[in-house]
Amino acid sequence: MNHFYFSTFFLFLLCDLYSAQNDPLCGTNGPPAEKGRIVGGEEVVPHSFPWVVSLGFINKFGEYKSICTGSLITPQWVLSAGHCVRGIEHAHKPTALLAAHSIKLKVAEPHKEAVRLVKFVRHPKYGNHKSKDFKTMVTNDVALYKLERPMKLSGNPHLGTVCLPPQNSTYDAYVDQVAIATGWGMTEDGNFLSQSSVLRKVSLPMVSTDFCAKEYRVKKKGNEKELNTLLCAYSPGNGTCHGDSGGPLMIRAGINNLSGGDRWTLIGTTSGGKKCAGKGSPPTFAHVSLYYDWIRKTIKENM
């Protein structure tokens, strides 16, 4: 995958999210869309999702420790979960690991690179809800993480950006589609030693707001605004876990003004759930298209 950034447009692309979103090659890597039966979690083909980023820190022994997962949306900005900020921001040497399949630094990969994180911007309304129903669900769970420097995408087949969805896409537009979630999270609920060292994926069907509200015992009436900030995807026994937080929930979709067929599009960022792997309730994801204006404004204000 090649990315061409003419020097006269380079700063413009960094400043203007719309241009970055419509990078002619965003979301063009990756496997075909999932069809048919839902599959369980499995290791991805190395570097098949070149926008997936690990967020963590370098400890005093020089070892990289992954805390969350994120998605590269411009050459210098990663979109992830708001609840990840605290653990990463105050860690020793906050770091993003890019173009990586394995999060072990000793495992050699052609383009793998550890880059310092220098700014963390959580959504101003993170967790801002008045209803007592939302005991296990976090609203507005998104944050932007700035890399120390813009990444060079040209000539790097293992690094790229994911496409953002159309602004204010409705929840119903995704229902019954099969999405993919990726991350370096735990593979066994409650076993922190089970964190995957390689990137894994799980295929999940999107479910309705009504189904999600029912599973979490949230009254829909009076909570419509909060529920609209979330997406739910569900396959019993399959799902996300600790360490996958902030990672992408993706579908293949057509993007306005871009040719070449469907692109991998970031519709959600992993937020949480009652238990791992969809046991007892569907995992929840922040509804990315609702934050388009905030993302664009934040990037422009923090150049």
TrEMBL record:
The keyword Disulfide bond applies. Keywords: Disulfide bond, Hydrolase, Protease, Serine protease, Signal. One of its GO terms (molecular function) is serine-type endopeptidase activity. Pfam families: Trypsin. Residues 1-20 form the signal peptide. GO terms for biological process: proteolysis. The keyword Signal applies. Residues 38-300 form the Peptidase S1 domain. SMART domains: Tryp_SPc. InterPro entries: Peptidase_S1, Peptidase_S1_PA, Peptidase_S1_PA_chymotrypsin, Peptidase_S1A, Trypsin_dom, TRYPSIN_HIS, TRYPSIN_SER. PANTHER family: FI18310P1-RELATED, POLYSERASE-RELATED. Belongs to the peptidase S1 family. This is Serine protease-like protein 2. It comes from Tyrophagus putrescentiae.
